[in-house]
Predict the structure.
Amino acid sequence: MPKVTWILHDGRQISAEVAAGHNLMEAAVANSVPDVIGECGGCLSCATCHVYVDAAWYEKTGRPGDMENEMLEITSAERTPMSRLSCQIKASEELDGLILHVPDI
Amino acid sequence: MVDPIVIIGAGQAGAALASRLRALGYAGPLVMVGEESALPYQRPPLSKKYMSRELEFARLLIRPPGWYEDQRIDIRLDVTATALSPTERTITFGDGSVLRYAKLALTTGARPRRLPTEAGGDLSGVFTIRTVADADAIAPLLEPGKRLLVIGGGYIGLEGAAVAAAKGLAVTIIEVADRILQRVAAPVTADYFRALHRKHGVVIRESAALDHLAGEAGRLTGARLKDGTHLPADLAIVGIGIIPNDDLAHAAGLAVNNGILIDGSCRTSAPDVYAAGDCARFQWRGISTRLEAVQNAIDQAEHAAAAMMGAEDDYDPAPWFWSDQYDVKLQIAGLNRGYADCVMRPGKREQSASVWYYREDRLIAVDAMNDALAYGIGKKMLEAGRSISRSAIADPSTDLRLFLSGT
């Protein structure tokens, strides 16, 4: 299973293996990653699963879709070019080793 | 021994309340009691991707199974609270056991309104969608060619209709009011969803009053409308609203009125007893309010937790809702009750549009269909207590993002 690491704003790291096909918001919640909330359950309505993809991984995770791009306008933490809503990124073997930075909210 | 904080109701609100109590530093004993056998889970997908079998149950859990032990939450499932004594500060359970509480939270949720037995409500083949057991019962029956009757053109019925139509069932929705979404959305929003469902082959009959569901040998065979029409059906989904679970509170002498009455700090009329979520009724902007929403379940429960820990500010929600039907995502910001008029704004993509509700000159709500920008900006504006004029919304050349500065 692909391994994903969340780096919290205080520098703490949480790593977990995530089943391929599961999205990285649900993976964060399942692993009690603080500040990735996912109130809407991953349906692009709350923007509370905002993360910054590590620059080395951004191209592999792909760009946000239209609706996601619009929801990124209302994130609590500042939007950057690395911003994604993690409910829209699915774990896959290609993302094994992925690093996500969790914003301070 | 110190008496615990007890939470009655293990749904979205109960889980949020427990989590926030721990996050705020409450280190004492914490008991959460739920009537269902499942750990707290998300209900909205039940009528959407869970019913369509795109998501398995484990993915609906609000917290992973090990979290409750990690957080020292004594979660008791399959347990019904049968009596509350505010004077003794006790809860009695179905097995006769009694638990003393230091503080109590009622997050008992709501149950679907059912059709009475004499109207065929107990026939086999008639379903409501509220629990995972409900969804598990109906999901295997959604087979191509079967005829599904949906009673009630609200969001739950429309979502069920969309799942069934996508699976190849012949779906008819009947709505007693003169249009679908009559209670919750403007005519233009209803028009949008009527057209969407018709495009997918769903028959919508508005101003259609059900007389009764008919059956043979206890099994649903169809519906008789008041005008005499007979609609044959193999399955029916009843989506005619939910009833707050305020019976325990009512029997204990707490003030209830279609919901457990609470103040701005989520306190009921009994000392050290709080309530939050679908079961709670509160004053919001001068109007008695009960919200049926994940947003409110979470935010109000977190507010109750803070109040239990001594916070004194009033709950002032920023409501938001969503629905998924076919390839359309509806996102709603605000609460449109009492609106005077609304403005339809076309979106930039196919099938995208938004409806902006006004009362006097103030924006009060937005329905956004496949238009997350309209939703997001509407939500931000409402949270900031700001408005956008009708004329700016009506002008398709207006760049809504310009309004974000200063929010």
Remarks:
- Chain A has a mean pLDDT of 93.
- The CA atoms of residues 50 and 85 of chain A lie 5 Å apart.
- The radius of gyration of chain A is 12 Å.
- The domain at 3-101 of chain A is CATH 3.10.20.30 (Ubiquitin-like (UB roll)).
